[in-house]
Amino acid sequence: MSGLAIEVSVAPEYQAAESSEAESRYVFSYTVTVHNQSPHSVQLMARYWKITQGSGDSQEVRGKGVVGQQPLIGPGQRFRYTSRAILQTPVGVMEGAYTLLNTYSQRAFEVPIAPFRLAVPCQLH
């Protein structure tokens, strides 16, 4: 257990202008906020995402940092970024984890990211 209080929240949004139902291309942006509620600085070192399509097919994405950065987040600070996911179905789910480094103890730890839904909004006629 890391003992560090890190809160991760995600706000997904459907990007209709970039999507095409005819091509089974559904683009979603998602804005992630990482709030460091601990007394020590942390550095976001790596990410892991599992993206599950409405069909049940899933893919895993791993990489260093986020959006080309490995941000240092001080005590009480927030780091926010926006990224994208492209699905082949109008509904999907993403979940994952960040690997963070406690800069005080030099110990790495994982923070899970709860599943969140990607869905094309219903069109009411």
TrEMBL record:
SUPFAM superfamilies: ApaG-like. One of its GO terms (biological process) is error-free translesion synthesis. Gene3D superfamilies: ApaG domain (2.60.40.1470). It comes from the Bacteria. Residues 1-125 form the ApaG domain. PROSITE patterns: APAG. InterPro entries: ApaG_domain, ApaG_sf. This is ApaG protein. It comes from Vreelandella songnenensis.
